[in-house]
Amino acid sequence: MQEKLQQRLQSLKSEYEAGQKMTAELEVKQANLHDTLLRISGAIQVLEEVLSEANESDLAENEAVPEADNAKAEVV
């Protein structure tokens, strides 16, 4: 009986160690994933800002073009 208890104890200790190792590995993966998501989020923000500025610039150019066309029309 005592031998079976010792075997069970050893088995549980092994499972516990394996669980701790897996937890540590998952924590590392979680930290790496968190860092990756932060980088992606930053890249998204930068691209959205660049696109917003480009759209504003395009709008300003499009508004300026009709004025130039009107001036040419008056000259003709």
Characterise the protein shown here:
With 76 residues, the chain is an all-alpha fold. 97% of the residues lie in helices and 0% in strands. The termini are far apart. The mean pLDDT is 89.
Query: From the helix content, strand content and strand pairing, which structural class follows?
Result: mainly alpha
* Overall body shape: rod-shaped
What ranges have pLDDT less than 50 throughout 5 or more consecutive residues? Answer: none
- The number of helical segments is 1
**What's the Cα radius of gyration?**
33 Å
Order of helices and strands: H
Mean of residue pLDDT values: 89
What tags apply to this protein structure?
single chain, 76 residues, mainly alpha, rod-shaped
Topology:
Blueprint: H1 2-75
Short description:
The chain is mainly alpha-helical. It has one helix and no strands.
